[in-house]
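Please fill in the sequence for the structure shown.

STRUCTURE ENCODING:
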């Protein structure tokens, strides 16, 4: 597990994590978050955060809950 920056997509009420994307920098994550917010509905929310994740070939395989 390593600490990485991720863009997380939550869907529904209550919010459930549906998708996660590895981001190279916080600024790139915030840029993608702004684009996603403009193009999605009210029931979808996006969060840029540091997470402990298992990464393979530049993609997040799993995220640690702790």
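FILLED IN BY: designer on duty
SEQUENCE:
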């Amino acid at each position: 597990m390593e600490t990485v920056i991720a863009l997380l997509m939550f869907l529904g009420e209550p919010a459930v994590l549906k998708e996660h994307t590895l981001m190279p920098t916080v600024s790139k994550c915030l840029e993608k978050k702004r684009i996603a917010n403009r193009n999605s509905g009210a029931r979808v929310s996006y969060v840029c955060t540091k997470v402990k994740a298992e990464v393979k070939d530049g993609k997040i395989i799993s995220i640690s809950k702790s």
